[in-house]
Here is the input.
Amino acid sequence: MTLDLLTIGESMAALRAGGALRLGGPAHLSVAGAESNVAIGLARLGHRTRWAGRVGDDELGALVLRTLRAEGVDVAAATVGAGELTGMVLFDRAPGGATRVHYRRAGCAGSRLRPADLTAALTPAAQVLHVTGVTPALGAGPAEAVRHAMPAGRAAGTVVCLDVNRRPTLWSRAAATAALRPLTAAVDVLVAGEDELPLVAEGPDEAARAAWLLTHGVREVVVKRGARGASVYDRDGRHDEPARVVTVVDTVGAGDAFTAGYLSGLLDGLPVGARLRRAVTLGAAAVATSGDWEGLPTRTELGRVGLDPEEALR
Here is the structure.
């Protein structure tokens, strides 16, 4: 199989409650993970995707693999760790309605990822390799795996995409800078929020930081601005795209959906402006529904994102 995309990282079981967890009540069990979210988003658009990571030999690990397979993501290169536990993330609602995220991942299978776990995943090379800043924050082994995979992918002619995706609960800004900035030497497409760009680039402002990255080998610097859309800096200048207007239900997973849309456009050979439009479209689809990836569209559904939610599709 010729792969369009390979993603590497942690995927976990996800439990979503409608209210505060301390109150009990019904909850929905699913799967979540920054990299697997991107793989699902691209698979729904018809791309051939693979997720590589480590899960435990438990029921939650089986749930992760079964869900990804059901979504058309290849998991043949995933590692199942004997006697290991699969991580879990729990979502609930704080008073006032804000989403709270609680992780149960310390010592779990995802934090035990090693370079040797990726041997089968890296051959044959995919067109695009996607990693995030979450994985190296999980521990020394996952960080080493990322440092191994990125230059190996680039040497094989793969386009390497890094989404900074800093998790403040995992590491400080200083620690993230120390780990992520050296990785940019092997990056073709860098994705970051406005507040994340200083972690990976030098300069007094956004334009200067983007220019710094472009002079150090990055081809495209993609800046996510949430409700204000997104921008891309490349050697032709700056390209901007406003966000799609939708009713926001849940913002978790929006950044991963955006990245999936951008990489889909890249794989389809679209110009930068069209890639950005697809990216903000998938981001809008993600925030308009509950769940990390459940509301992402198929290719035939792309044009329906942003329609009046009260209008029935007959």
About this structure: Residues 140-155 form the longest helix (16 residues). The radius of gyration is 18 Å. Residues 55 and 109 are 5 Å apart (CA to CA).
